[in-house]
Each structure stands twice: as structure tokens, then as C-alpha cells.
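Exercise 7.
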Amino acid sequence: MTTNSRRPSLWGALRPTLVAGSLLACVSSCAEHGARDTVARTNIVTMRGKPLTLVGTPVQVGDVAPDVRLVANDMSDKRLSDYRGKVVILSAVPSLDTSVCDKETRTFNEKAAELPGDVVVLTVSMDLPFAQRRWCGAAGIERVVTLSDFKYREAGDRLGLRIQENQLLTRAVMVIDQRGVIRFLEIVPDVSGEPDYDAVLNAAKALRG
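Solution. The predicted structure, written as C-alpha cells, is:
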């Protein structure tokens, strides 16, 4: 007695469905994280004159800011959409434990006192939340919210701000309006420099007119 070798197996019957499901999952994931548009950019920033490479999905003025996930000092998840309805100043820095990032965040904390309560300043870095909380306590930071990109890495990847050479965030500031649209963007040409504070604050104030 012989068996029918042409009889379809269970795997053969399920394979088209599984393959289709895998493709749909991949497309959904790529769309969510912007992986299809990931690029490497040179001639954008330097570090004390040494060229660096930025990787990720670049954004520009007029774009809706990606709803990136971040981690607060208490280890809870935060999203940019949590601040919808407010004007957001998002300051990306390499690390709070460096002198320029320390000075920049302290400056924004002081300048924020001039801003209305519906303007929020977020400082984002790859520092661990524990280190950010320690730094804020020592520096007496009250008006700036520090958030970490260490867990999801979405701020660097989906805003095009990750430095390929050291995997830190480059120094950049964007102002996002109440609807989540980017209205101002400055990528500081040399990571060791500081942003144009007045331009940032003026852009934020203009959105409240």
C-alpha cells in the first residue's frame, strides 16, 4: 500500500497565511519606526571640527513631530503626544554630565521662567533616568523636564539626531506647536557649541500670539 506523496501538508496549507502575516507585521513595524527612511548624513555636524555622521529619519520645519517614546526620571514611559496642546521646546543633548550640556540645560531652566505655563521645555539625552534625576536634584532644575532615550532609542532614530560614531544624540533644539507640528529646528553645527537661545525662545513665544 502506498501513500499519496502529493497530499498537501499542514505547513504547506498554512505557509501563505504565515508569510503574508509576517510581511504585514514588517510593513507595520517599519511604518511605525520610520525604518524605511533611515539615512546616514554627513557634513551636518562636527565635534570640535571633526566630522560626525548623523543617522535616523530626518525631520524638518513643517513636519508633524513623530510621537517618540521616552522614559521619565521615575522610569515611567512618556510620549511627545502627552504634551499635545502645549508649546514644546525639545532640547536634545549628548549627556547632562558634560559641561556644555550642563550649561545649556541650566540656561533653558532659567529662561523658562520668562515663558507662560503652557510652554514646556524637554531635555532629552541618552543618560539613564537615574543619572538625570541625580543631575536635576544637584542642579536645582525645576522648569525643565528631563527624559531619556536609552530604552527605545526613538528620539535619535525618528528625529534623525543619533551620532553614528558614539550613539549619543547630537545637540539640537526644536520648537513644536500645540498640534505637534515642528515650527523651529536648529541642529547646532558643532556639538561642543550652544544653541541660539533667543531664537528658540522667540519661536516659542510667537506660537502663543
